[in-house]
Amino acid sequence: MSREYWENLYQTGDTRWDKGEASPGLVDFLKRERLSKGSVLVPGCGRGHDARVWANAGFSATGLDVAPSAVRESREQTAPGINAQFREGNFLEDEPFARFDYIFEHTLFCAINPSERDNYVKAARRWLKPDGKFVAVFYLIPDTDGPPFGTTREEVRERFEPFFLLEEDWVPRSYPNRTGLEWMTVWRTGNDVEAKSER
Ligand SMILES: C[S@@+](CC[C@H](N)C(=O)[O-])C[C@H]1O[C@@H](n2cnc3c(N)ncnc32)[C@H](O)[C@@H]1O
Q1: Whose CA is nearest to atom 9 of ligand 1?
Q2: 145-184: per-residue pLDDT in tens?
Q3: At 40, phi and psi to the nearest 5?
């Protein structure tokens, strides 16, 4: 899906994925988890709800989106003093302008064409620091005519396990129409994982 495709959805107001609030699973996670503070990238940030929740929890948040209107609206919805910035760019293709302690995935993996999923995994490694963590909410639906395009736990494990170690996973609290359809995961990188992927 091109930049123009997404920009057109924002300009025509056809943004049904946007529930006007952050991922409930993320909100709960940030309340209970004692993560060391650092920088977080939210790729495909949309209007910035998730990035603002990370910022309010004490992280330095950057939202990245390919659609200029998403970036503009994110900035408009972010009150002065909140530690969240928004940039236009392509998560899959761009050379990182910084490397992050965390990446938070929420509805970008299901938004891209499944043929780009290998590129997604490589991009996640590229944008993370060598000891970074990848926190993700995956959308487990069967749809093949997306976006959204569905996935399974098995597919996600197959794609990510060569490059990341799964530390934790659970079924999170969700928006009402996604209850039971989401899978939340925390993955880490590191030298030992690197060595495993090189074998
Ligand atoms: C389904 S929407 C989800 C938005 C947001 N995560 C949310 O849940 O409200 C997917 C978002 O990813 C953006 N996007 C699609 N491909 C992208 C890419 N390659 N790099 C960065 N953003 C992308 C779209 O513009 C859109 O804002």
Answers
A1: 18
A2: 999 999 999 999 999 999 999 999 999 999 999 999 999 9
A3: -135, 135
CA angle 46, 132, 188 (to 5 degrees): 100
Structure tokens at 62: 């950057």
Name residue 41's beta-bridge partners. 62, 103
What is the three-class DSSP state of 43?
strand
Distance CA 57, CA 47 (A): 18
Q: Identify the weakest region by mean pLDDT among 31-35, 67-71, 188-192.
A: 188-192
Nearest CA to ligand 1 atom 8: 107
Rounded to the nearest whole angstrom, what is the distance from the C-alpha of residue 3 to the centroid of ligand 1? Answer: 10
Q: Which residues line ligand 1 (CB under 6 A)?
A: 6, 17-18, 43-46, 64-67, 70, 90-92, 106-108, 111-112
Q: Which ligand 1 atom sits nearest the alpha carbon of residue 110? A: 1
CB atoms within 10 A of CB 73: 19
